[in-house]
Amino acid sequence: MRLLLTNDDGYLAVGLAVLGVALLKAGHDVCVIAPRREYSGAGTSLGQVRYGAEVDVARQRIDELGDAPVFAVDGPPGLAVKLALSGHLAAPPEVVVSGINRGWNTGAAAIHSGTLGAAITACANGVSALAVSCGKDSDVGCDTAGRVASELVPRLASAPEPVALNVNVPSLPFDRLSGWRTVPLDRVGLHDVRVDYAGGVLRYALQANHDHMTPDCDSAAVRDGFVAVTALSGRYESAAY
Predict the structure, then answer these.
(1) CA–CA dist 33, 15 (Å, integer)
(2) Which residues of 3-26 are buried (b: 16+ CB within 10 A; e: fewer)?
(3) pLDDT, tens digit, for every residue of 154-194?
(4) 168 touches 110 (CB < 8 A)
């Protein structure tokens, strides 16, 4: 299957390489088109749209992915997806996979994520997509997320209509997962972005939320060791995992 691999952390991010290796091992045809630098928090942005402006695109290489084509775009992940779907660099993908984001994207704050923005952009343009995230400091969770993504891709390919899935993976080995749950976004995320303003200066702050989670929503599912699967666009019929 032809897959586009992208992210919001830049094409050299460890999570993207881990994901690419997992998808190649599963037998997929992988093409990477990803931002040249970090675009966390970019959402579905295309960047500063100035008609006729030139955006740099450069051929690169990721050693772990061998001969898989890699392109770095000087713009956010939404723009990378638009470029991939245009077919200018390679045949358009059948499924878009975004991640692996090192840091969970749960709760309402997830809508700001560039990782999710790539998936939503793909779905809005008629291609199913998967955005996958794991714990910020967990190599084990990253490896597990790669395996989870490789198992979900065939389900997306057979979906009756385009869908964008937000998938959050606990920091656990694959065989220690509690299971998989199809759940809605919670009001609060495991981590949210807070803004502080003092002395005429606005600052970002990371706020951890481990209380006040709503049962049967994504944040609580990940906390309890489940892979949380949330449909952000389109319909997703849960299957028995």
Answers:
(1) 14
(2) bbbbbbbbbbbebbbbbbbbbbeb
(3) 988 888 899 999 999 999 999 999 999 999 999 888 877 77
(4) no
- Write phi, then psi, for 212 (nearest 5 degrees): 65, 25
Q: At a CB cut-off of 8 Å and minimum separation 6, what does 82 contact?
A: 46, 121, 125
pLDDT in the model for residue 119: 97
Asked whether 233 and 174 are in contact (CB, 8 A), the reply is: no
Residues 187-231: tens digit of each pLDDT: 888 877 777 888 888 887 777 766 678 889 999 999 999 999 999
CATH number of 2-187+215-233: 3.40.1210.10
| Paired sense of beta strands 29-35 and 2-6, if any | parallel
pLDDT at 120: 96
Copy the structure tokens of residue 151.
């198992």
Predicted confidence at residue 202, as pLDDT, reads 87
> What residue spans define the domains of the chain?
2-187+215-233
Q: Find the DSSP H helices in 26-138.
A: 77-86, 114-124
Crossing angle between the packed helical segments 139-157 and 14-25, to the nearest 10 degrees = 50
Give the DSSP letter string of 133-200.
EE-TT-HHHHHHHHHHHHHHHHHHHT-SS--EEEEEE-SS-GGG--EEEE-PPPSS-SEEEEEEEETT
CA torsion 9-12-14-17 (nearest 10°) is: 110
* pTM of the model as a whole: 0.92
> How far apart are the C-alpha atoms of 70 and 6, rounded to whole Å?
10
